[in-house]
Design brief:
The chain has 124 residues and is mostly beta strands. 0% of the residues lie in helices and 47% in strands. The chain contains no helices and ten strands. A six-stranded mixed sheet has the order 2-10-9-4-5-6, with no helix packed on it. A four-stranded antiparallel sheet has the order 1-3-8-7, with no helix packed on it. The protein starts with a strand and ends with a strand.
Length: 124
C-alpha cells in the first residue's frame, strides 16, 4: 500500500459537481492502481472507482457510473475523482488508496492504513 492524502471535499447542492484529489507519496508510475472508497456512518466502506495507473483502465460502481470519472495526472502524482450530477446519496467520507505490486485489492478489509478522507455533503 502506498501512502496517499485526500482533499477537495465540500458541500454542494444536488446536481452540482466536485473534484476530489488524491496525492500519492511516490512516483505514480511505480504504482499499480488507485481506488476511491466512500463511507457513511453506520455502513461499510464502499468501493466507488478504480484506475490502473499504467493502462488508464477504469472501473466504476453502478451507483456512480456515468456521473463520476477517475483519472490521474502523472506529473503531479495525483489521482482525481470528478463527481458530476451529485445526489444526496453521494454524501459520504471519501478515501483514496493506492497499491503497488501486481494486485489491486478492492476489498477495504485489505487496507491497512486509511487516510483522513475528505467529506462530501450533497443537499437536496
Amino acid at each position: 500500500q502506498v501512502q496517499t492524502a485526500e482533499s477537495g471535499g465540500g458541500s454542494v447542492q444536488a446536481g452540482g459537481s466536485l473534484r476530489l484529489s488524491c496525492e500519492v507519496s511516490r512516483d505514480i508510475s511505480s504504482t499499480y492502481c488507485a481506488i476511491w472508497f466512500r463511507q457513511t456512518p453506520g455502513k461499510e466502506r464502499e468501493w466507488v472507482a478504480q484506475i490502473f495507473t499504467r493502462s488508464d483502465n477504469t472501473y466504476y460502481a453502478d451507483s456512480v457510473k456515468g456521473r463520476f470519472t477517475i483519472f490521474l495526472d502523472s506529473a503531479k502524482n495525483t489521482v482525481y475523482l470528478q463527481m458530476n450530477m451529485l445526489k444526496p446519496e453521494d454524501t459520504a467520507m471519501y478515501y483514496c488508496v493506492a497499491w503497488s505490486g501486481i494486485y489491486c485489492y478492492t476489498d477495504p478489509n485489505y487496507v491497512g492504513n486509511w487516510g483522513q478522507g475528505t467529506q462530501v455533503t450533497v443537499s437536496s
